[in-house]
Design goal:
Blueprint (H helix, E strand, L loop, with lengths): L9 H7 L11 H23 L3 H30 L9 H9 L12 H21 L4 H4 L4 H26 L2 H4 L13
Helix pairs in contact: 1-3, 2-3, 2-4, 2-5, 3-4, 3-7, 4-7, 5-7
């Protein structure tokens, strides 16, 4: 049975479910992470079109992470009350924040081919989901924090772990070379 959404709650619902992806019937965290990756693509496209540097792209990504964090904390208690669980499966804004952390300063150079971008995004999505499911300490301990803090911080930790795994994968394995990404392009400009 679906609960009706009060007129003043639509922004909260759309935000915490990342445009409804949290309502997926299974693996809502994975759907929320995929939505985060798909929402990253217009940002990357804007960076390409407008000639932004990789630093500008990272800065805007950080703004997105910050907004997701603020809203996760602000709407956390409301979501827990609405859905009746400490970490509601519909609440995937925390996955958005963690997934975007996993995309910071990786070898997505502004002028890379779309196949390269897709490969990097897929690997980072995999690393984030893996670290989110494994709950490597202190991620599991963060879940004990109250309300939105607990919902959010385990995913931020998973995002940091995925970011670190990504840097290890792309810098120390031949993956970057296979994609034609010289190490000097990591986190640097496109030119």
């Amino acid at each position: 049975m679906r609960r009706e959404v009060a007129p003043g709650d639509w922004f909260k619902v759309l935000t915490i479910t990342v445009l409804g992806s949290g309502f997926a019937p299974f693996a809502s965290g994975s759907w929320g992470s995929l939505a985060a990756v798909l929402l990253y693509l217009p940002l990357l496209l804007a960076a390409r079109t407008l000639g932004w540097s990789a630093g500008s792209l990272a800065g805007l990504t950080a703004v997105g992470i910050l907004l997701a964090c603020i809203w996760s904390i602000q709407f956390g208690e409301w979501a827990i009350a609405r859905f009746g669980r400490k970490d509601p499966k519909q609440f995937v804004l925390d996955e958005f924040a963690g997934q975007w952390i996993a995309l910071l300063w990786l070898p997505i150079v502004i002028d890379a081919g779309w196949a390269t971008v897709a490969a990097v995004l897929f690997v980072q999505l995999f690393f984030f989901r893996l670290t989110d499911v494994l709950k490597v300490p202190p991620a599991a301990q963060f879940e004990r924090l109250p309300a939105g803090w607990g919902v959010l911080f385990d995913d931020l930790a998973a995002g940091v772990y995925a970011l670190l795994l990504g840097h290890l994968f792309w810098r120390f394995l031949p993956a970057a070379e296979w994609l034609g990404l010289p190490l000097s392009d990591f986190g640097g400009s496109a030119g």
